[in-house]
Structure formats: C-alpha cells, structure tokens
Amino acid sequence: MPPVPADPGPHSGAPGQYSGPGRPPGPGQPPTPGRHAAPGRPPAPGGPVDPAADRAREAGRPGGPMFRDEQPEPAPPGVTETVVLRAITDDVPSAPGRPPHPGAPVHPAPPQSHRAAGQPPFVPSFHPGQETPVAAQPAPQPEPRKQRGGRNLQAAIGVGVGLGAVIVASLFVVKALFLFVVMAAVAVGSWELTTRLAERKQIKAPLVPLVVGGVAMVACGYWAGAQWAAAALALTGLAVMVWRMAQPPENYLRDITAGVFTAFYVPFLATFVAMMLAADDGPQRIVLFLIVTICSDTGAYAVGYKFGRTKLAPTISPGKTREGLAGGIGLSMLAGAVLMQLIIDGGSWWQGLILGGCAAVTATLGDLGESMIKRDLGIKDMGTLLPGHGGIMDRLDSLLPTAPVVWLLLAAFVGS
After folding, report:
1. What is the pLDDT of residue 242?
2. Which residues of 91-126 are buried (b: 16+ CB within 10 A; e: fewer)?
3. Dihedral of the CA atoms 288, 294, 297, 302 (nearest 10)?
4. 209 has a pLDDT exceeding 50
5. Would you state the pLDDT for residue 82?
6. Which of 46-50, 100-104, 379-383 is predicted most confidently?
7. How far is 6 from 258, CA to CA, in rounded Å?
8. Minimal CA–CA distance to 402: which of 340, 359, 367, 370?
9. Which of 69, 109, 274, 300 would bridge with 222, disulfide CB 3.0–4.6 Å?
C-alpha cells in the first residue's frame, strides 16, 4: 500500500500549545506563554515557570499522550512515515522459526489441567477466541506380541487337533485308511522338497517318478515287507535317471542326485510307518510312535523356553538348547514307559524308557537335518499348506528319521 504521511495532529505547532512530555518543542517553535513543559522535565530556556500550575497538573490529572495537550511530536518536514497494517484475518501462528508480528499479543492454548474431559486440544492464535481445535490423536496401540518362532499359536493348535482327529479316525475305523494318509503325505512332501530345490537352487529333480515310486514303496512296505520296499526304492532311483535323460545333459548328475536323495528321505523312511501299521497291533504301535515323537518336541520346547541357556547347535537352529534336549528326552522316556506297558502286548516299562530316549534323540537329529536343508536353501518353511506349521515337510522332519528306529526297537522287543 502507498506510504501514509504521519498526521502531525490538530494541535501541533498551534499557538498556546506545548510539546508532549519527554520531547522538546518542534524546530523553530518557541515555548507558549502561560504553558509549561511536561512534568518531570525542566522548562524550555527562557520560558516562564508557574509552580502553582505544576502542582495543579500533578494533583488534578495524569499526563500522557491520551490528552489533547500532550500530542506526540510531528515528524520533521520532508520525512515520510510508512505504516504497515497487519491483515485482520491473520489468526494462525507464524511459521516455525519466525517470531510473531511485533506487538501482536500471544494467546497460548488453555492449559491441560483446565481442559474439560473429552475437549480436543487447541492450536494457539494471536487473537483471543480464535484458537483452532485439533482432532485428538488416537493413542498408539501396543504391538501384538509375536509368538515364539513367529508362528500363529492358535492356528497351530487348531491344525494339530485336526490332524490328530484324522489320524485317530483312520487308524481305529479302517486300518488301511491310514495307509492312504501316509501316501498323501509322501506325495505332498516330495512335491514341497523338489519345488523348493528348483526355486532356490535351480535343481530340477524329476517329480513324477518320485511320486509314483514313493507310493509304491509305502504300499510294498505294508503288504510285502521291507525287502520289497527296498526294491521299490532301487527302481525309483533308476526311474529318476531315465526320466531326467529327456532334458539337456547340463546339471544331469546334480538333478538325479537330488532325486535319489528325495526318494530316500521322504517315501523310503515313511515306509517304516507302513510296516509298523502292518502288525496285528499296528494302530497301537503308530500311537506309541507318534506320541513319543510329539513328547520329544513338546518337552524340548517347554523346558528350553523356561530354562534354556546353553545353545545346542547355534549355527543350525539357534532356538534349541541343551536344557531343552534334556527335557524332550525326559518327557519322551516317560511317555514311552507308560504306553509300552499299557497298550503294547508283551511290552515292559523299561523297554519304553529305551524306546522313548532313542526316539527323542533321532527326532532332534531329524529336526536339525531339515534345518540344515532350509538354511542352505535360504527359507524358513518348506511350504504354507498347514497354517501355523508351515508345510507337510515341516511336520515330517522329526517323524521320518524316528520311524525306522521305533520299528526296529519294537521288532526287537515284542516282534514284528
């Protein structure tokens, strides 16, 4: 806006007037007769002194620029004074780091102690009554506590109960139904392992001969015995070699080696479960085998979580401890002694102690073995088929190496 010349006032320089307190008369302006300078200042040189007027002024009314006879001194001639007007609507605080407008009053927000319950906070404003309410920010929610190992415990328990119901129903309703459960687990486990090998290492183990040969191994172990199961394993290895010949020769040895390893690791070890099932008390033997293996895992988890201090294999599985291993062996031995005495014909409690201890050791070694495979592949789980558990192979890791040990000890103690 254009500069506004300062208004000298209607009484500045008029005869009979005097300058405001604390300021001398204007240039060329003599003191007015009959008047005196502002209180507290000596009169101008040559001006009359009126003590009675001084006392009357001091006792009658105060001085200051609000009275007509005390107007501020006008600006010197030729000097223009610029007045900057602040916008009326400026009711927000200045930008961070900038002081407010000179002379502008600051009205802070109401203190927290005087704020009514439920009333939102306010943004301070330079004009009273124009504070802007701010929506209350929601309180930060605490992060959900993650389960140990990063797994959903509720989902894991639900899936475990469901699998247990399927196993019990297939075992004690029609024994042969459990055989198809084993075959399905073998087929899915072989698919998970070969898929992870192809994804992470570009190892292409032939899946079709592995699935067909795995089902044949389980069936031979149940109906024909161990010799036929071993023959099926050999034929599966040959089928893998022939199937891989349909592709280029690059990495041929690597692919068939992975295929033979998969045939041994998944379906052949599972064949011992089928051979336990083939006995007269097959369902009871399967129950004993499953419970001692589960007790090994459960005891290791509980004791290791509470008292675990010394790492068992920190480079393979940092969560496992020696204290947990001792707890798993103890609980597995206890379960083996009780079940061997109660549900196995001709079994004794001391046989159950031996069986449970050996099962806990092999279950731990099987878990560590699969942990080595997963670390080499750079994965956490073999699959996502079972919520809270991972894949089928993540549940078979401790069962597969334990099956031949339990089958052998049962055959030695009570016969096959």
Report:
1. 97
2. eeeeeeeeeeeeeeeeeeeeeeeeeeeeeeebeebb
3. -110
4. yes
5. 53
6. 379-383
7. 98
8. 359
9. 274
> Side chain identity at 407, as an amino acid letter?
W
DSSP H or E stretch at residue 133: strand 132-133
Q: How far is residue 294's CA from residue 179's CA, in Å, rounded to a whole number?
A: 20
Residue-wise DSSP of 82-116: --PPPPTT--SPPPTT-PPPTT---BPPPPGGGSP
The pLDDT value given to residue 266: 96
- Higher-pLDDT residue of 403 and 79 is 403
Task: Measure the CA–CA gap between 178 and 188, rounded to whole angstroms.
Answer: 15
Question: CB atoms < 10 A from the CB of 33, how many?
Answer: 9
Residue type, 369: G
Q: Side chain identity at 95, as an amino acid letter?
A: A
Q: Give whole-number Cα distances, 54 to 33, 39, 368, 386, 392, in Å.
A: 14, 7, 107, 103, 109
Answer whether residue 92 shows pLDDT above 70. no
Taking the CB of residue 158, how many other CB atoms lie within 10 A of it? 13
This prediction's pTM: 0.64
pLDDT at 126 over 70: no
Q: Which two tokens stand for residue 212?
A: 């067909």
Quote the pLDDT of residue 339: 96
Angle ∠(191,212,231) on CA atoms, nearest 5: 120
Alpha carbon distance 91, 132 (integer Å): 9
State the CB neighbour count (10 A cutoff) for residue 58.
Answer: 12
Scanning the structure block, which residue is given the tokens 């010394």? 310
Parallel/antiparallel/unpaired status of strands 122-123 and 132-133: antiparallel
Look at the alpha carbons of 84, 85, 90, 91 in this order and tell me if their dihedral is positive or negative: positive
37 versus 98: which is more confidently predicted?
98
Give the three-class secondary structure for 316.
coil
Cα(407)–Cα(411) distance, rounded to whole angstroms?
Answer: 6
Band of the pLDDT at 386, cuts 50, 70, 90? confident
